[in-house]
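Summarise this fold before class:
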Amino acid sequence: LNETEMRYFANLIGFKCDDEKWSKEFALFCSAGEADVKVGINVELFVKLVDDRSDAGCYCSEIELKEMLKEINPNAGELSSR
């Protein structure tokens, strides 16, 4: 996920801030996960972030993630059951 894509996720979990602060937060996520800011957050790092219950993470339960997916794509339930 690049900075814009990750910000969309962050907004879904209630993280609201201005562009400058978000750029710094994204850089911190990347740095902590040893990811290149220009490349973004890969699947492995995203999974670590959503499983991390500390202040450094973005913990989400499986149910919360499924609800977000439904919000983004109402047909997601149909796709995942095929």
About this structure: The two ends are 25 Å apart (CA to CA). The first helix runs from residue 3 to 12.
